[in-house]
Amino acid sequence: MSQQALGGRAPPFGGWERTVAGRYLRAKKSQGGVALISVISFIGITLAVAVLIIVMSVMNGFRSELLSRILGFNGHVYVAGGVLQAPDRDPLVHRLRAIPGVTQAAPVIEAQAMALGIGQISGAIVRGITPADLKATKIISGNIVSGAMEGFGDGEYGGDLVLVGDELARNLGVQAGDALTLISPTGGATAFGATPQRKSYTVAGTFKVGMSQYDQAFIYMPLAQAQLFFGRDQSVDFVEMKLANPDDAVGMKPEVARIAGPGAVVTDWTQKNASYWGALQVERNVMFLILMMLLFIAAMNIISGLVMLVKNKSRDIAILRTMGAGQGSILRIFFMTGATIGILGTATGLAIGVLFCTFIGEIQQAVEWATGTQVFNSDVYFLTRVPAKIDWMEVSGIAAGALAMTFIASLPSAWRASRLDPVEALRYE
Fold first, then answer.
1. CA-to-CA distance for 239 and 251, rounded, in angstroms?
2. For 75, which DSSP code?
3. 277: buried, middle or exposed (CB in 10 Å: 19+, 13-18, 0-12)?
4. How far is residue 34's CA from residue 26's CA, in Å, rounded to a whole number?
5. Which helix (H) or strand (E) segment is 197 a member of?
6. What radius of gyration do the chain's Cα atoms show?
7. Where do the structural domains in the chain lie, given as residue ranges?
């Protein structure tokens, strides 16, 4: 160690400072070091960072899977109001389909009804839609589990074939080819007011979206038949638009409203699913804060380790000061000691978290093989494996937050070491 270095003319974070910090970090307890506390701090930060990345990635995966089903089943932008009255509706639908980014614009009737199966009865939501639009809705047409769509929409007023959610059909005790009776509370108008409408239909097939709230509640009916059954005449309830990018829905609303005209009411999927969307956001934010507290606790171990290290190395600090080392050098030495633990722990936790999320499917299979149990039942969650979606911006934020916490935790003890009076430290030596 040269006098030039100790005299403060060496660059900050130079070789001699790094060498001393490394020795303090590796020193055993008998040498006045705190190796055990350093190891515990390293393990704590590693596990906190890895768990934070894994949990947030799994939550992102679930959120992505749920939203893909919700947004695949429902529309992204809705147009309602007086502009949907015939004969102006069809030209409006064509204009909406021509908007860049719009993949589908379908006139829809949606109403509640009572469904009677074989000795069973249940409430249902009947959705009237044209056969072409139903075929374009891949989450329905691509997930027919029994029967088929053949003949759907054929016949007078769209015919009598309907598609039923798989769970609803099971609850009603019906399957493809069976008769299903629907009762509408808003049927035809008479001199005594509206009377319930009752009619039997044939189940053409059953579909399974993968979310029980849809599979156990919805029935699809040809649009013309729904207009007749619910007494809508030639009107529809709304035009359901789907976009290539659902995130563009909010920004596209002004253009849709301009094209639809002043009598239109335009809403988007974030408004229709506001409570559900809000619950997901709150849950995600709260979980993030809870796990960040674990990371904060792990970082606090660095403070306790450095406090003990400064106490044990007070004689060394005094000798370095008397040899010409400045307060800045002492501060940097002990700061690097704590920061090194944070950097290594964060890097290791980052690698573990990313690898775990990348191979989460193989890990799930290994756990199921070892335990002989199914840890993720597809019949309950409607997913074949635990979903994990790595958000690299979020991972970068976690890593930056972990480093910031460890750096800040290293400063108090390093500052205390730099202010140590060498005369007081050597008085009783």
1. 18
2. -
3. middle
4. 8
5. strand 197-207
6. 33
7. 3-67+277-426, 75-269
Q: How far is CA 260 from CA 64, 82, 236, 317, in A?
A: 31, 10, 15, 77
Q: Which of 53, 52, 65, 182 is nearest to 114 (CA)?
A: 182
DSSP assignment string, 122-136: EEEEEEEE-HHHHHH
Residues ≥6 apart with Cβ < 8 Å to 153:
130, 131, 134, 159, 161, 222, 224
The span from the CA of 58 to the CA of 61, in Å, is 5
Indicate the helix (H) or strand (E) that contains 94.
helix 89-97
- Cis ω before 87 (30° cut-off from 0): yes
Distance separating alpha carbons of residues 247 and 245, to the nearest angstrom: 5
Q: Are 249 and 243 in contact (CB under 8 A)?
A: yes
String of b and e for 132-161 (b: at least 16 CB within 10 Å)? ebbeebebbbebbebbebeebbeeeebbbb
3-state secondary structure 410-423: HHHHHHHHHCCCHH
- Are 139 and 125 spatial neighbours (Cβ–Cβ below 8 Å)? no
Q: What is the pLDDT of residues 91-124, one digit of tens each?
A: 888 999 999 999 999 999 999 999 998 878 999 9
Instruction: Assess contact for 413 and 307: CB atoms under 8 A.
Output: yes
CA distance 414 to 337: 9
pTM summary value = 0.71
- Which tens digit of pLDDT belongs to each residue from 320-365? 777 777 777 888 888 888 888 889 999 999 999 999 998 888 888 8
Rounded Cα gap, residues 46 and 427, in angstroms: 41
